Amino acid sequence: MTGFSIVEALGIRKEFPHMTAPVLDDIDLTVESGEIIALRGPSGSGKSTLLNILGCLDGPTRGSYSLGGRDVSTLSHRERAWVRLHYIGFIFQSFHLISDNTVLENVTLPLYYAGHGRAERETRAIELLERVGLGHRMSHRPSELSGGEKQRVAIARAIAAEPRLILADEPTGALDTKTGNEVMKLLLEIHEARSLTLIIVTHDPEVADFCHRQVFLRDGRVVTDGSLHAAHA
Q: Distance between CA atoms of 152 and 62, rounded to whole angstroms?
């Protein structure tokens, strides 16, 4: 870890018109570059809402959020889309792969939106798929892959545009324990090789054990924020 705060959220509050209580209430969270953070807590504690704000998918009702030293809490939808494209990679429990596209096409997609030429997109995507052990599956469709293979494709896609921050929402939730551990070890290897920052929403204590810190939310507030040594690092 470098000591540089890539994420700095201060006094984050999030309200929705149809709800009487805020989903997030006075959240403070600072994450250093290179850290691996587990966001934990019961269903309804605000984890996914906080992840959406950290991922610039939504903005806070009140409070400030700086990403890489830039205040992004008041950006427009278009400006947030630019930040997502260039700074953030997403990994989801349900993979979110495009079913009609090949594995290779799925991984090249963020590079297309980032403006890279076709040859560069394909070269980089092939390198990434080989890195995650799927060089032999590039022409397959997602429906032909196992759950673990789909998540490896999703990881390759998430890092294709060389983001600084990876946000993972239950990345092993749809996988068995063995496959989930393999996916987490792959994420750790990529984290080490690229000095990425990872924020992982998880209910699984085994996944949390891979992380440097565990942040517990309850009723929209941080109740515990503790450092630990990753058990599998």
A: 36
Which of 16, 39, 36 shows the shortest CA–CA distance to 27? 39
Q: How confident is the model at residue 19 (pLDDT cuts 50, 70, 90)?
A: confident
Residue range of the domain that includes 170: 5-98+166-227
A 10 A CB-CB count for 137 gives 19
In-domain check, residue 24: yes
11: left (phi over 0), alpha (psi -120 to 50) or beta: left
Average pLDDT over residues 1-23: 87
For residues 117 and 106, what is the distance between their CA atoms, to the nearest angstrom? 15
Each residue's pLDDT tens digit, 57-68: 999 999 999 999
CATH assignment of the domain containing 45? 3.40.50.300
